[in-house]
Request: fold
Amino acid sequence: DAKTTQPTSMDCAEGRAANLPCNHSTISGNEYVYWYRQIHSQGPQYIIHGLKNNETNEMASLIITEDRKSSTLILPHATLRDTAVYYCIVRAHYGGSQGNLIFGKGTKLSVKP
Amino acid sequence: EAQVTQNPRYLITVTGKKLTVTCSQNMNHEYMSWYRQDPGLGLRQIYYSMNVEVTDKGDVPEGYKVSRKEKRNFPLILESPSPNQTSLYFCASSSSGTVFPFSYEQYFGPGTRLTVT
Reply:
C-alpha cells in the first residue's frame, strides 16, 4: 500500500475553510484515497474517499491531483467541533482483503475561535 | 440511528479474570473488526470477520478470541487478560464483506477503555 505523508498539525479559524493536504506519491492505479478523523479518543469517523475524480459529500470535499500523487481534504466552514486528528489512508479495493485500515500519525487540526 | 455500540465503555479488571467486550451493529453489515489503539502505535487490527461464522486473525491476535454467531454481534473475549492488554479498543463494521469490490468505508464504535492491573 502506498505511503502517505501529512503535516503534523494545522490551525484554522472558525468559519474558514480548512485545507488538509496529503502526499501519496507512490499511489498505484487501483488505490483509493480515504479520509478519516478521530476526535479525542472517540471512534474514528469516515469522512470521504475517492479514486481520481473530485468528490463532495455533506462533510467535506476531496480534491485529488491529476497525477494522483497528492490530495486535499477541504472542510468548507470549519467549526470548533472539527478539531480532531485527520488521517489520509490509501487502500486498494480487492476481494479477500483483511480490511484493516492503517492509520498513520495524521494531521492534528485545531480550529480556533 | 445507524450505529455501532460497544459495552462496557470503561473496564478495570485484574490479571487473569476472563472478560468479554460486546460489539453490536444495526446496519446489517457483513464485515466487522476489532482494533486496539495504543499511544505511538496507532490502531492495530486484532481480528476481523467477513460474515457469520467467518473470522480471521488480524495483526495482533495473541491473547484474544472472537466469535460471530449472529450478523449483528462480534464480541471480543480476553480469556486471561494481562497488563499488556491495557488499551483502547474499537469495534468497526462495514457493508463490504464477501461482496467484491471491498470498500474501506467503515463505521466505528465509541471505544472501550480497558485497564488490566
